[in-house]
Amino acid sequence: MAMRDIRVVGDPVLRTPCEPIRERDARVRALVEDLLETVDADGRAGLAANQIGVNLRAFSWNIDDEIGYVLNPRLVEVSEDEYQDGDEGCLSVPGLWFPTKRAWYARVVGEDLDGREVVVEGTELMARCLQHECDHLDGMLFLDRLERAERKKAMRAIREQLG
């Protein structure tokens, strides 16, 4: 297992939709170990494979003292009438937080390393994490979901960070 470096905004891998995992070979098992180890640090809620440079559909989470992973996740349900508007951040956009509207509840269906179905669901922070990580796997950043004025502020802050 290895704590992996996080790719940051501007890296093209973050804008590339991830490929489905077809084989659960040693490479995929190592990826899962790396995702679990890398997400297991203070202040980390979720981590998508492309954030560590791997273009495969997998992510890990670290919410309320529960750490897990899912392969080939699909966001199958979100609450359509209840939302949350809290600040959201991203390991790939370090140090910046912006108000991001997300569904209050979300459910993801995917698989584990043995090919068994995995269902992950939750409200509040877990729901935000599930939506955020599925966006990553589709080549989106939370910045894409910001209201126009907030997005302008975010892009200005990113440009200042990058110098």
Automatic annotation (TrEMBL):
Keywords tagged on the record: Hydrolase, Iron, Metal-binding, Protein biosynthesis
Active site residues according to the UniProt entry: 133
GO biological process: translation
Keyword Repeat: no
Binding-site residues for Fe cation, renumbered to this chain: 90, 132, 136
GO molecular function, one term: peptide deformylase activity
Catalysed transformations (reactions): N-terminal N-formyl-L-methionyl-[peptide] + H2O = N-terminal L-methionyl-[peptide] + formate
Keyword match Oxidoreductase: no
Record text on cofactor binding: Binds 1 Fe(2+) ion.
A Pfam family of this chain: Pep_deformylase
Cofactor: Fe(2+)
Gene3D superfamilies xref list: Peptide deformylase (3.90.45.10)
EC number(s) from the headed UniProt entry: 3.5.1.88
Entry's family note: Belongs to the polypeptide deformylase family.
Protein name, UniProt field: Peptide deformylase
Taxonomy of the source species: Bacteria, Bacillati, Actinomycetota, Actinomycetes, Micrococcales
